[in-house]
């Protein structure tokens, strides 16, 4: 089973402001989750599970998440930046559709938090720009 998720956001700021805010986004009130686009390495271990629970779940190599964020100049105006996020969640295990749906919902929620995070960091960056100029 494969579940596909796509989200497209038109950020109302120029490309250079978005890139600058991307590198200056922490500390941020919405950054308590940081599980989507800032992860360099992720691993599922058995140490965090209660005894016996790790045997009831399939191994992590049976559930795949492939996120792909894309940034590009806005199509309508040069003062906008288009952010398109896509995620493919797949598993070859029969009857594993419910965990995939839960994981898809968690991915959507995490992407919404990331969008708020980017807006807040971009807003603070624009305030800094207006103060210094």
From TrEMBL:
Top-level taxon: Eukaryota
Any Pfam family hit: PRELI
Assigned GO CC terms: mitochondrial intermembrane space
InterPro entries according to UniProt: PRELI/MSF1_dom, Slowmo/Ups
Domain PRELI/MSF1 stretches: 2-133
PANTHER family given in the database record: MSF1/PX19 RELATED
Protein name listed in UniProt: PRELI/MSF1 domain-containing protein
Natural source organism: Salarias fasciatus (Jewelled blenny)
């Amino acid at each position: 089973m494969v579940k596909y998720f796509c989200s497209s956001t038109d950020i109302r700021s120029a490309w250079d402001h978005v890139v600058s805010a991307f590198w200056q986004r922490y500390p941020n009130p919405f950054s308590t989750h940081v599980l989507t686009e800032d992860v360099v390495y992720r691993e599922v271990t058995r140490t965090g599970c209660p005894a016996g629970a790790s045997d009831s779940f399939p191994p992590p190599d049976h559930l795949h998440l492939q996120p792909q964020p894309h940034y590009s100049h806005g199509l309508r105006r040069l003062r906008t930046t288009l952010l398109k996020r896509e995620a493919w969640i797949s598993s070859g295990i029969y009857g594993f559709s419910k965990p995939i749906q839960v994981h898809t919902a968690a991915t959507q929620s995490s992407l919404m938090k990331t969008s708020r995070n980017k807006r807040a960091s971009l807003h603070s960056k624009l305030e800094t720009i207006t103060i210094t100029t």
